[in-house]
Amino acid sequence: MSNQDLLLGYIQAYNAKDVSEMLTCFGEGCVFENISGGKATARTEGKAQLEALARRSAEMFASREQKVLSVTEGQGRIVAEIDYHAVLQVDLSPDLKAGSELKLRGVSVIEISGGKIVRLSDYS
């Protein structure tokens, strides 16, 4: 499987909220971090922490979709420009209530080793 196939498999599972399939794309010691507006909003270390976060996150959205707009690959790393759209299933704050739409554009930096994602950093 190519690195881009791995990325697309992860995104397909993410969009389907299939956490078990998502996790097959990651190595055991993986690191995930989300950076929004220059601030870290989430970080996990290891597959167990990632699974817990992924399961909580999947329940928060009625629907969610990442679309890959462009991909650059080199040195065991992929940089993907992502268009993100989601509809909340739960209230997150007074401004972000169930039914609210989220539309973001961001970049995902994915490091791959041994055919698995070992680090995923999402920037928006």
Task: Characterise this structure.
The chain is of the alpha+beta class. The chain has one domain (3-123): Nuclear Transport Factor 2, Chain: A (Roll), CATH 3.10.450.50. Helix content is 26%, strand content 52%. The chain has three helices and six strands; from the N terminus they run ααββαββββ. It has helices spanning 3-15, 19-23, 47-60; strands spanning 26-36, 39-45, 61-74, 77-88, 101-113, 116-123. A six-stranded mixed β-sheet has the order 2-1-6-5-4-3, covered by helices on one side. The protein is globular, with a radius of gyration of 14 Å. The two termini are 28 Å apart.
Key descriptive features of the protein:
single chain; 124 residues; alpha+beta; Nuclear Transport Factor 2, Chain: A; 6-stranded mixed sheet; 6 strands; 26% helix; 52% strand; globular
Brief digest:
The chain is 26% helix and 52% strand. By secondary structure, it is an alpha+beta fold. It has a six-stranded mixed beta sheet with strand order 2-1-6-5-4-3, covered by helices on one side.
